[in-house]
TrEMBL record:
<protein>
    <submittedName>
        <fullName>Arginine deiminase-related protein</fullName>
    </submittedName>
</protein>
C-alpha cells in the first residue's frame, strides 16, 4: 500500500512562515526503560550518532530560516530530547505537561523554567503530554487520547489555550501519541494514518479533512507522520519515501532527515521539536 491522496484540481502555492522551536540535545539519551513499544531496555545507543542526527535536524530548521532555542539536558532524564511532550504554546499561553510515567515527570518543571519568558504558564490538573497529543491546526487543536493524555485534559486545554479542541482516540500502541499518527501540514491540511484511530475518530477526521493525505502503514511504521511543517517545507524521516512523494504532489517540499538513533526511544522530528507560538 502506498500513501493515498485526493489531488486538488490545482496544486496551491505553499507559503512558509518563520517558526520558533525549542529543542534539547540527546546528550544523555539512552533506552533504560520501556514506556512505549519502540523502547527495548538495553538496546545499544550510539550517543555520538544521536547527537549528530539531532544537530542535523537543528541545522535543518536554521537553514529554513527558523529560530531554535536549545534547552540544557538533565543527566537523569534520558528522554528529555523529546521536547515536544513538555508543553503546548498558543498565543504566548503555555499549557504545561503532566507526564503519565514517573520517569519523565521532572521534565515538565525544567521546560517550564525554559519557557518562563514566553508568557503565562498553567500547571495542568490532568495528565497530558504536550504537543505529543495536542496538535495546533489553524484555529483548532487536535487532541489525542487512548494511551497517554487523560481525556479530561482536552477541556482544560481548550480553556487555557482558548481554542476549540477536537478529541481523537488512538487504538494502536505503536502510535501512542497523536503526533505519531497525524502531521499538521498547514492550518487546514493534515496527513494521518486511519488505522491508528477508532471508527468514530476516523469519521471525525474524514469529515473535517476530506482531502487529507492518508499515510500508508509502511510510512507510519518509520514514524513518517512525526513531521514538522512550516506551511511549505515538511521535515520528516527520510525513510518515509511514499509519504514524501504524496506531499510533493500536494505542493509541499519534503525535507528528509535521519533520526534512526532517536527512533529507538519512539521519537522522530516532531517529538524533538516544541513550537513556541508567541
Amino acid at each position: 500500500m502506498t500513501s493515498v491522496l485526493t489531488r486538488p484540481d490545482r496544486v496551491p502555492d505553499r507559503t512558509p512562515t518563520r517558526r520558533h522551536y525549542v529543542m534539547c540535545p540527546p546528550t544523555h539519551f539512552a533506552v533504560e526503560y520501556a514506556i512505549n513499544p519502540w523502547m527495548r531496555p538495553g538496546t545499544p545507543v550510539d550517543r555520538d550518532l544521536a547527537l549528530a542526527q539531532w544537530d542535523a535536524l537543528r541545522r535543518t530548521y536554521l537553514g529554513l530560516g527558523h529560530e531554535v532555542t536549545v534547552v540544557e539536558p538533565d543527566p537523569g532524564l534520558p528522554d528529555m530530547v523529546y521536547a515536544a511532550n513538555a508543553a503546548t504554546v498558543v498565543d504566548g499561553r503555555i499549557y504545561g505537561a503532566r507526564f503519565r510515567y514517573p520517569q519523565r515527570a521532572p521534565e515538565a518543571e525544567l521546560f517550564r523554567k525554559a519557557l518562563v519568558e514566553v508568557g503565562p504558564y498553567t500547571e495542568p490538573a490532568f495528565v497530558n503530554e504536550g504537543e505529543g497529543d495536542f496538535l495546533v491546526a489553524g484555529d483548532v487543536v487536535l487532541a489525542g487520547t487512548g494511551f497517554r493524555t487523560d481525556p479530561r485534559a482536552h477541556a482544560e486545554a481548550a480553556r487555557v489555550l482558548r481554542r476549540p479542541v477536537i478529541g481523537l482516540e488512538l487504538v494502536d500502541p505503536r502510535y501512542y501519541h497523536l503526533d505519531t499518527a497525524v502531521a499538521v501540514l498547514s492550518g487546514q491540511d493534515i496527513a494521518y494514518l486511519p488505522e491508528a484511530f477508532t471508527p468514530r475518530s476516523r469519521g471525525v477526521l474524514a469529515g473535517r479533512y476530506p482531502d487529507a493525505v492518508l499515510a500508508s502503514p509502511v510510512d507510519a511504521a518509520v514514524l513518517g507522520l512525526n513531521a514538522v511543517s512550516d506551511g511549505r517545507h515538511v521535515v520528516l524521516p527520510a525513510a518515509a519515501a511514499g509519504l514524501a512523494a504524496a506531499l510533493r504532489d500536494r505542493g509541499y517540499e519534503p525535507v528528509g532527515v535521519d533520526l534512526s538513533e532517536l527512533l529507538k526511544g519512539g521519537g522522530g522530528p516532531k517529538c524533538c521539536t516544541l513550537e513556541v507560538r508567541a
